[in-house]
Each structure stands twice: as C-alpha cells, then as structure tokens.
Amino acid sequence: MAINERGAELTGAYNHLTEIDYIWHGGKEWPKYSPLLFPIVGGLKNGEYEYKGKTYKLSRHGFAREKDFTVIQSNKTSAWFSLSSDDSTLEVYPFPFELQVRYHLEYNSVTIAYHVMNKGRETMLFSIGGHPAFGLPFEKGLKYEDYFLLFNKPEKADRWTVTSSGLISSKPEKFFRGEQKLNLRKDLFLNDALVFKNLNSDQVSIVSYKSSHGIDLKFSGFPYLGIWAAKNADFVCIEPWHGIGDHEDATGRLEEKEGILKLEPGGEFSASWKLRVF
Fold it and tell me: Is-contact 201 238, C-beta < 8 A?
C-alpha cells in the first residue's frame, strides 16, 4: 500500500503473492491514481454554486485532492491523514471543517474510511466520495476486453448520462435489465462516466474470463456509483459517492443540490469502502 500526502491519495496496492499492483499508475490519459472527492462530487453548473446569496466557484470534484494532508499516524498496516479548513478553502467553501482519511491494511484488503467534522457554527453542506482507478490488464498477455464488472446482486438500474458540459442529464437511459455482469469495452466511456443511483449491489468486482486475479470493491451505504475511464485508456474507475454532479436543471443553490449531506455544528460523519485484491 502506497499513499501520497497530497490528497491523501492511494497510489499503489501491490500484492506480493500475485506480484500485481492493481492501482493505475497515472499517465498522459489521466494523471491521477485514486483521488478523494470533497467537498463536492462531480461538476457544478457553470462551475459555481450559491450559498446565502453569495456565489462561489469550485472546480470539478472539489479541492481536497489537490491539498497536502497532515500525517497523524503511520505504521506498517495503517495510515491516518487530516485536512482542516484554512483561508484558501474558506474563500471557495465557507464552512470550517476537519476531514480525516484513514487507511487500514489487513492481509489482501484495505479499508478507506472518511471522517468529516463540522467545526463551524452553521450546518455544513458537503459531498464526499472515492475515485480509485485500476490499471488493466492486471497481467501480461491479457487485454482490456478480457475483463468484466461483476455486481453482487442483479441490477435493473438506469444510467444517468453526463453531458458535454459535465452535468448529469435530466433523464436517464435504460441500461441494466436484471444483469450482474458488464463486459468492459473502451467504447463504454466515450461519452464520459456511467452514473447510477441506488443500486441493489453494494459490491462490484473486476473479474477476468482468462485469469483468477482481480479486485472486489465493497461500498455499503453509498447511494451513488460512477464507473469511468478516460477515452481509450487502460484503466477503469469504480467510484462510490455520497453526492453527485449537478443536473442540467440544477438551481445552483448548494442547499438544493441533489445528494448534498448536511452536518450540524459539532457533528461528525463517517463512511468507508473496502478494496480486496486477489
């Protein structure tokens, strides 16, 4: 397990038994590995939002992934990071906060836990999510199309498409009709991410028709899931979200944003997802 203090970002998940590093190593197609999305998920309409009559600009997925976190604790099996609000965050996001990210390694699994604390005197509005990218193929001699996503329950969910301006379309498209498998093809992502709401499943695996090696990603409690890859890139992201990008018809008011979480003064919020490699 390798973690960068910039963004508290997981940059490696190497299994010594399989000799595979399952995390995408970054590249010209996309320079990230597994960024943390906070205090928003996805894009904002016109790149801005309104709160208490004031307009703020905030880039896609928020600022946490570009911030240097403080290491609270680190040893062979766990790492604990913290980010607190400061003048630069308050300029674009008017809520005092502390965000902690904890990694815990156990055999062939790592749990990534988010802990958000409202340090202000007003209700805090936020979203949070993961964006791990897995480089494919995991092994030499295989190709991207040798893999599929396996959902742990049959799905009948529609797909919410992403527009050219990065917003969520106002109407979904039919997608799953009782399947559990989704064959991976690079043309799946030519029009951006596959976005789903309230799936039956709480686990998605990357599995191969030609190998016994892959990953499980468990995301209990997350109401949204994104699946994405850059165009023609050799990776796929499985993204558990508490929050979603603005819809085409969004009002722009933060308190009316779909999926926004509300945290009372002094309150705390926790969520976690778990990655198992095999």
Answer: no
Q: What are the structure tokens assigned to 132, written together?
A: 């791990």
- The amino acid sitting at 227 is I
- Give residue for tokens 């789903």: 196
Residue type, 233: A
What is the average per-residue pLDDT within 123-140? 98
**Domain edges within the chain:** 2-277
The model carries a pTM of 0.96
Strand partners of residue 123: none
Tokens of 192: 């951006």
Could you tell me which residues come within 8 angstroms of residue 130 by beta carbon, excluding any fewer than 6 positions away? 34, 36, 37, 112, 219, 239, 240, 241, 273
CB atoms within 10 A of CB 85: 18
> Among the CATH numbers 2.70.98.10, 1.10.600.10, 2.120.10.30, 2.60.120.560, which is that of 2-277?
2.70.98.10
